[in-house]
Amino acid sequence: MAELLLTAQTGRPLGTRSSRRLRREGHVPGVVYGLGQDPVAVTVPWPELRRVLTTEAGLNALITIDVDGDKQLSIVKEMQRHAVKRDVTHIDFLRVDPNEEIQIDVPIVLEGEAKEVENEDGMVDQTLFTLAVYAKPNAIPSELTVDISELTIGEAIRVSDIVMPEGSRTEVDEEEAVAIGTVTRSTLEAMAAEDAAEAAALEGEEGEGEGGEEGDGGGDSDDDGGDDAGGDE
Question: Mind listing the domains of the chain with CATH numbers?
């Protein structure tokens, strides 16, 4: 896992108005906490924060945060964004011990193409997007990849199918589904329409058959009546 350096400043004024002013000036308010130490309110320059958040490690990067000269190993625990602009409005850094396991949510990425699902006009429905992983800070994976190439309609890839990187583990139920091969709504509607058309056609054929039988019965009755009349004469 990548380890990056980020410089933070303390002594920021608290409050919504002050936080807005800081953001306008290109800084993001945040807090550093954990390991039994007091939380510290900080600000970090947005360009530097963006740099450490856009590496291959993503949000799970190990960040050495320099707080007034005191370097502390941390990870991003929570990040808040503006509802519309999606700008980062606040960030929480969690201090971590390099020798102790921590729990963190790791993104799940699907790989490959589910050809059998595609051939049946289905789709792959991803039901689990992150997995709670336990690992020491240096062993936290940036993402977990899952191969969906062998997935079929009605089948599921489960947590037990995920290959956990060395040094990491999960306590999530191994039977929990990660991705499922499903039939799309449009395909179901098309199948239902086809079944309805076949049923209607079958009913039509049965109706024609019943009509033909009734016609044949009426002819026999007329013939019988003619013979009787001839016998009377």
Answer: 3-96 (2.40.240.10), 104-185 (2.170.120.20)
